[in-house]
Amino acid sequence: MASGISAKHGLLTTKCSVFHSLQRKILPHAICIQRPTEVKCLRASTNSTIESQHNEKYCIDIVRSRDYDGFVSSLLLPEDARRSSLALRAFNVELAQVKDSVSQKTIGLMRMQFWKTTVEEIYRDDPPVQPVSAELWRAVKKHYLTKRWMLRIISEREKDMEDRAYRNLQELEAYSDNTQSSLLYLLLESLGVKDVHADHAASHIGKAQGIVMCLRATPYNSSRRKVYLPMDICMLHRASQEDFIRGSREQNVRDVVYDIASQAHVHLQHARSFSKNIPSSAFPAFLQTVVLEDYLQRVQRVDFDVFHPSLQKRNPLIPIQLYIRSWKKTY
Q1: 232 burial via Cβ count (<10 Å: 0-12, 13-18, 19+)
Q2: With left for phi above 0 and alpha for psi between -120 and 50, is residue 238 left, alpha or beta?
Q3: In 3D, which of 96, 98, 95 has the Cα closest to residue 119?
Q4: How far is residue 38's CA from residue 240's CA, in Å, rounded to a whole number?
Q5: What protein family is recorded (predicted)?
């Protein structure tokens, strides 16, 4: 009886082995067969990854071409905040280039409205299909960024569509605070920094950056017969808009540049006065001070001649200087 059972067991085993062997020959890839739903999920995941990479590359490219100093500064941020920083800078670039890229104010205002709507949709978890919007949404979800700072940047850029000179230095500072300082507040949030002293420093650095950007853009704007320098300082030194449009290097024009550059320097000094009370984790957000300091030193060397050819060239040592400042953990 036992031998019979053993024989039957052996026969069954043999049959099973033959069956599995035939199955492998007939369906050699049966083990790899996936259900339709699994294939769809795999494709969706792949497409999502490709789209995410495309969005990131778009932001990198636009920041590298339009805000090179900001691009290099972002590369020196901790890896956890780097991608979000590039998204924020890409957002800032998109807004900044509206004014120069439209021929009619109405079109510019429509674009600003698009970004206002976009920000609202981002915070509703429904961002539009656009690379910068998608990257911003990712940054908001990751770092819980404050919506108010984004809307503040848009509103101030929208007001700037008026395309007129600043009435006084305080107006230029207010514009700089609402745009550049707001961007720095967002960068601090992406670094996980919530500190009142860091916010004070960011406010002063943002104002200094806005003032320096206004000076740096003067030759370009003058070539387009546009002058945005504060009118009160121009009037104080009897420098007309025509002087700047002609690219004058007279002393009164230099005096205007000196007064404006001096105010940027004051803001940098104020920002650095907070350095002992600021957590070191905030310092990467302030690396732009290297670029501001470099321009102010160069404009001083040419006796505040804002039209000097050397000021129109990028300093090739800036990336090295940024790296050293990053390594020293100072600003």
Answers
A1: middle
A2: left
A3: 95
A4: 70
A5: Belongs to the NDUFAF6 family.
CA-wise closest residue to 153 among 86, 91, 204 = 91
What is the arithmetic mean of pLDDT over 261-276? 97
Instruction: Please give the Cα distance from 211 to 81 (Å, whole number).
Output: 27
The token duo for 151 is: 């809307």
Percentage of the chain exceeding pLDDT 70: 86
Return d(Cα 66, Cα 144) in angstroms, integer: 26
Question: CA separation (Å) from 306 to 68, 123, 149, 213?
Answer: 21, 42, 32, 12
Which residues lie below 8 Å from residue 311, measured CB to CB, with a gap of 6+? 216, 219, 295, 298, 299, 302, 305
Shortest CA distance to 87 belongs to which of 190, 167, 166, 3?
190
Residue pair 229/168 in contact (Cβ under 8 Å)? The answer is no
Looking at residue 240, what is its pLDDT? 96
Q: Which conformational region is residue 192 in: left (phi greater than 0), alpha (psi within -120 to 50 degrees), or beta?
A: left
Q: How far apart are CA 211 and CA 290, in angstroms?
A: 15
Q: What string of DSSP letters covers 72-111?
A: HHHHTS-HHHHHHHHHHHHHHHHHHTHHHH-SSHHHHHHH
